[in-house]
Specification:
95 residues; mainly alpha; 61% helix; globular
Length: 95
Amino acid sequence: MVAAWLDYRERFGFSEFNAEVYGKISYKALVPVSALAPDEDLRTRAKMVQHLQELDHVIGSKGKRISTARGRAYTEGKIDGYTYSFMQLIKDLGR
C-alpha cells in the first residue's frame, strides 16, 4: 500500500498542490516512512517524495507562509494566519 501511494506521488505529484489542509497530512506520513520503513527502497523513495514536497513549499513560500496558488484553502487558514510549522526547520526561521 505504501509503495502504491509513493508510485502515484512520484508520477503525478500532489493533486491538492500546496493545500495546507492535506500537505501536513502527507508530510507527517512521509517522515516516519522515510526513517523507519523496513525496506531500504521504501525509505529512499519516501525521502525523495518528502524532499519534493519540501522543495515545492520552500519555492512557493514567504517566511513560514505558503504564498502560491493552493489546491484547497479554508477560511481559518487565511484568517488565523495558518503556517506550516516545519517551515521553521527547513528555512531556519526559528531563531
